[in-house]
Amino acid sequence: MASINYATREISCKIVYYGPGLSGKTTNLQIIHRKIPDKDKSEMVSLATETDRTLFFDFLPLDLGSIKGFSTKFQLYTVPGQVYYNATRKLVLRGVDGVVFVVDSQVDKLQENLESFANLQENLREYGHSIENIPLVLQYNKRDLPNVYSIEQLNSLLNNLRLPHYEAIAATGVGVFTTLKAIGKSVIDKFNAKYAGFQGTRRPARPGEAAGAQAAPRPAAPQAPIAPPRPAPPSFAGYSNNPSSPAIPPRPVDGTRAPLNVPGSFGAAGQGPGVPGGFGAPPVPGGFGMGAPNPFASAPGQNPGGSAFGVPGAPKPGYPGVPPVFPPGAQAPGGGGPAGQGGFPFAGHNPGGAGGQGPGGGMPQQPGNPGFMGNPGIPVSPFVESFGKPAGAPVIPPNPPMGIPGMNPPLQNPFSGGGAPPAFGQTKPASTGGPGLPMGGGFPLSFPGPAGNQPGPQYPQQGGFGGPGQGFPSPPSQGFNSPGAPGVGTPAFGGPANAGFGSPPANVFGVPPAAGPFGNPPSAFGAPSPGSFGSQNPMGRPGPGSAFQPPPGKGGPQYPSQQPPTPPEAPPQNRPVGGQVDNSGIVTTYEDMAKDDSFKTRKLPHPSEKKKGFFDGLFKKGK
Amino acid sequence: MGDFVLYKEDIDRINKILSNLITESASAYVLLINKDGNLISQVGFSPNINVTSLAALAAGSFASTKAIATLIGETEFSVMFHQGDNQNIHISLVDEDVIMVLIFDDRTNLGLVKMIANQAKTKLGMVLKDVKTNGIPDIMPELMGGGGDQVQDKLDLLFPGDK
After folding, report:
1. Confidence label for A204 from pLDDT (cuts 50, 70 and 90)
2. Strand locations in A157-257, DSSP E?
3. What pLDDT is attached to residue B16?
4. DSSP helix/strand/coil, A127
5. Rg (CA), chain B
6. Whole-angstrom Cα distance, residue A469 to residue A490?
7. Cβ neighbourhood burial of B44 (10 Å; 0-12, 13-18, 19+)
8. Once rounded to an integer, what is the mean pLDDT over residues A488-509?
9. Where does the pLDDT of residue A611 fall: very low under 50, low under 70, confident under 90, or very high at 90 and above?
10. Which of A178, A249, A586 is the closest to B15 by Cβ?
11. Among residues A178, A174, A143, A140, which one has the least CA distance to residue A157?
12. What is the pLDDT of residue A139?
């Protein structure tokens, strides 16, 4: 039973070397392992006794590379040959695709060969195979020893089925690869035979898949002439799925359900250090602030965002051996709030900032999104309000579907959201007049400093930006700033704090649009204007921070006039509304979450609820 | 038992569940493997873990535990837990063919991991049920046509001069 993974485009076949004890099965694998070129070399696992007798199995993965678009891998196993290890031998045979029966050619080993061959038949039968229907080759080993049977004799004794047979001297490598090639061909040819003239029995796509397969246009880019495909899932650290999947079905989306951008994965300009950190997962009080790891850590010119994986109450240093690397000016994860999670540097190897999560943190509200965040009582999970395009900042240009070489269709930057360029001055300030979200925990918003050495437009300080508990005192030279501690309560937007957002479109990532390997629009941040921060009541209740709440369309803070040119208006309903992004890059919108049971179980405390202290209720007053 | 065919959509669904599992249980890494030792999916943060070997060994370990279980009259053990000084491993059966391997350290605790893993197991079971109804796609014959010779060519490339 081979494993065919269409997501990773991998076919994995299991080949077992079978035979009597000391016939040379492990030696075969050792020779193969020794001869694998270093660049392809993988570790060989041997579960052997102290005397180097195989106890359970030897295991050698062998990557053949791409065959017809599929990465083909052989997993070579040996079995323990001794008779009394039959139980483990049987286990190894599970799921076998092909068998090499290694025969000890010596005359006095004939009985063992016969017993082992009978045992193979018996064990295969238990898994529903037989030697007739499974690819099987014989290797007559130890041909260099004296007192061996001739090939004709061995064939008459063992090979009644006229199986392919090969002579070998495994100790010196003779015949080892001939055998391997023969069984490899045999296994794959078996596939051929199995699927020859096959019409395909793939079941109809489930609802949701079907829409996905129709290349549904991304709502945020209505102007795009070609519907951009759904972004490929970012690979997690060490996560190798889908490294080069050529066929990525777009996610089914409709007008009201927009995929979410992934903060925490923005690369700053290639020359810029600062990257916003991850997003928090506030539903767990004091819970994890887990950033989306940057899947494209190797993308040229992209500075991957880090993420913090904070564990409640357990500030820990980084994962052993992999200290987090933060860019200069970045703050360590977990520094964002009093929750005080030490960052579990989930993507600590990625340069880039990581934001911890603090209850005092807020979420940045998109400008020009009247109604959504402002609606009191919308029980949306306070996951991520995306850095997507503001409604007033329409898409220019449409997401250029840039491809990674060899990828078809081109991947789109999953984090680009609508891909709106910064549009300061044109964006309408958000109207989040309502009490806001019932957020339990806020977001570790780590806003990028100036992207690279090109700070964007500097805005005069706007008093009243930022509510209590939210401060963004970012000097332009600082690449990364965590939200201040709660209770700062000052007009916290330190003027040029938003320099990073104000960067000219092409400079946010430092990647020219055409060179953006992942389809970065000129500014994937969507450039919320400073006004967007002011519009957000970080604590989710009316307060000083929400004092600045101009109604939509009435103009927000008046910025200097050196803004980028006015882009055309984008339909507001198409802007990303938020959601959650998981490690695989799957974007979960609020709608998804509402349907998902696991999200329903997370009850969020209303901000107005008084936090009950430990001693409350233990002692009664007046008594 | 037919071939195990996974599509992008399946992997997406699986990874979503695994990601939530990692987040909620504060584990470091999770592998989904089948009992043959093939890796289905993996999510998490693994510095220098040889996941291929890990998958093969975990499957082997699970298989041998199953053999032990039959000796004492059980069909199989559905959960295995190995505790180390720093890292622990929690291996659980998702359905009759698929095993979930969860690696975690002392940032979390076994009880939480067990609970969250159990929840994830149910969800994964539903996805895997769908996976098992996956047929073979139409492109299969085209893909595999002549594959056998290509394998030999690849092996010739990999081991030049070895006969």
Report:
1. low
2. 165-167
3. 92
4. coil
5. 18
6. 8
7. buried
8. 36
9. low
10. A586
11. A140
12. 96
Please check whether residue A170 is in contact with residue A180, taking contact to mean a CB–CB distance below 8 angstroms.
no
Separation of CA A23 from chain center: 44
- Find out whether A259 and A247 touch, Cβ atoms under 8 Å: no
How far apart are the C-alpha atoms of A421 and A394, rounded to whole Å?
A: 8
Greatest C-alpha distance within chain A: 103
How high is the mean pLDDT of chain B? Answer: 85
In sequence order, what are the beta bridge partners of B5?
A4
Q: What is the pLDDT of residues A8-33, one digit of tens each?
A: 788 889 999 999 999 999 999 999 99
User: Which of A134-159 are b and which e, b meaning 16 or more Cβ less than 10 Å from the residue's Cβ?
Assistant: bbbbbbbbbbeeeebbeeeebbeebb
Chain B closest CA to A169's CA: distance in Å?
A: 11
- Residue to substitute from A194, A236, A381, interface B, most B β-carbons within 10 A: A236
Residue A301 has pLDDT above 50, yes or no: no
Residue from B155, B156, B157, B163 whose CB has the most chain A CBs within 10 Å, to mutate: B155
Q: Which residues of A219-234 are buried (b: 16+ CB within 10 A; e: fewer)?
A: bbbbebeebbbbbbbb
**A57 contacts in chain B (CB < 8 Å):** 60
A429 burial level (CB within 10 Å; 0-12, 13-18, 19+): buried
CA A387 to chain CA mean position, Å:
19
Say which residue the tokens 């959601």 belong to: A579
What whole-number distance in Å separates Cα of residue B53 and Cα of residue B59? 10
B39-44 and A587-589 as β-strands: parallel, antiparallel, unpaired?
unpaired
Helices and strands of chain B, counted as H and E runs: 5, 6
